[in-house]
Write a structure and sequence with these properties.
Length: about 130
């Protein structure tokens, strides 16, 4: 939302905290499921697909293109055979919640677009065709 620079030390600290507490094997929870109040839904809370793609974009915006690309490519492997994502992913990669989830796909497009832009700039600046 451009209220803080993605390279600001305060944001980078926030990103590190997110990584420490909410990221599990490249996927991101929207909150700590074991520490949150009950949402009234049965079953286990999965990682939130939109948060995983936002994480990729945050990494790219903060300049960590290598990690952003790695996480992005790993996240792509969790789609179904049509390339679609559910709202959440379970511990074994199973699709949980709303399916297909439009917000997840908007975040996927945004992350892909920004990451491609930054990787293209890196390639161009290195003189690679």
């Amino acid at each position: 939302m451009k209220f803080i620079s993605p390279t600001d030390p305060r944001w980078k600290s926030t990103l590190k905290t997110i990584e420490k507490w909410l990221v599990e094997d490249s996927l991101v929870y929207r909150y700590l499921p074991n520490n949150a109040a009950s949402d009234g839904m049965s079953g286990r809370e999965g990682t939130f697909s939109v948060c995983s793609f936002w994480y990729v974009e945050c990494l790219a915006r903060s300049g960590d293109l290598k990690q952003a690309r790695f996480i992005f490519e790993k996240a792509l492997g969790y789609s179904n055979h049509l390339g679609l994502y559910a709202e959440q992913l379970g511990p074994c990669g199973e699709h949980l919640g709303n399916f297909p989830q439009a917000l997840s796909h908007i975040a996927l497009i945004s992350a892909a677009s920004y990451l491609d832009k930054r990787l293209s700039q890196e390639t161009f600046s290195c003189g690679v065709d």
